[in-house]
What we know:
Blueprint: E1 5-14, E2 17-29, E3 35-45, E4 65-75
Amino acid sequence: TGPGTYVADGELVIKGRKVRVPLPFRWVAAADGKSATLTAQVVLDRHAFALGTGDWADDAWVGRNVTVCVQLTLLR
């Protein structure tokens, strides 16, 4: 990790399934100190959360890996 790059270590619960998900993110504060931006991207395995079962279980129709992107701007 470099300057402004961190990892939030947490758990994500979807449909009652709890999975440890490290979330690498970048934190950039504005020069004037009035705001900051957090950006992150993580790839989740939908099967770990029992998403896409039954008719949707086949990875040919819905990919197994789902990319989640986050952008959060915080104002002072």
